[in-house]
Amino acid sequence: MANAKLLPVLLSFLILPFSALALTQDFCVADLSHGDTPAGYPCKAHVGAGDFYYHGLAAAGNTTNLIKAAVTPAFVGQFPGVNGLGISAARLDIAVGGVVPLHTHPAASELLFVTQGTILAGFISSSSNTVYTKTLYKGDVMVFPQGLLHYQYNGGASPAVALVAFGGPNPGLQITDFALFANNLPSAVVEKVTFLDDAQVKKLKSVLGGTG
To answer: What is this protein for, i.e. what is its function (predicted)?
Structure first.
């Protein structure tokens, strides 16, 4: 009972520093000359209007690659103005037949807004492995909860483009296929954890540049 009574008090002390920062500081443009920390980048001493502006999403990404897709980020590393604001953005270009393979964003939820073409998108719940999938057209929006496996695929007849918003300045990214087959994780281990045979594992490692 005593521990239960102490919990709100402890939580108030944890929240206080963040509340104080929000009340005393309108923004904290990242000073990228210093390293990132768990609390974000330190604040830049002198800021201007240009720190709150980013033109990098205007141009299409290069989809001439294995997955026929490109993500152009506007995360804190490219757009220092989002530091501490709990947001960031990206542009997604997917050529016909292109795919963003199963992946996760450990540090943010994602909102996808289709501006051109057709995208088949979906995510998988963590508790029951239920698949939630939808074909998205121009003007459609879909949300992907933080940390859940999700994908986007262009099964249409023309290139697809989407704008993406994230609930964090640096959402992180881990693509499942690359995590398994694009590194030096021993093939024998990969076989055990994926139920694939040796030939399949070696083929995927060869395609994705893995060793072992």
So the answer is: May play a role in plant defense. Probably has no oxalate oxidase activity even if the active site is conserved.
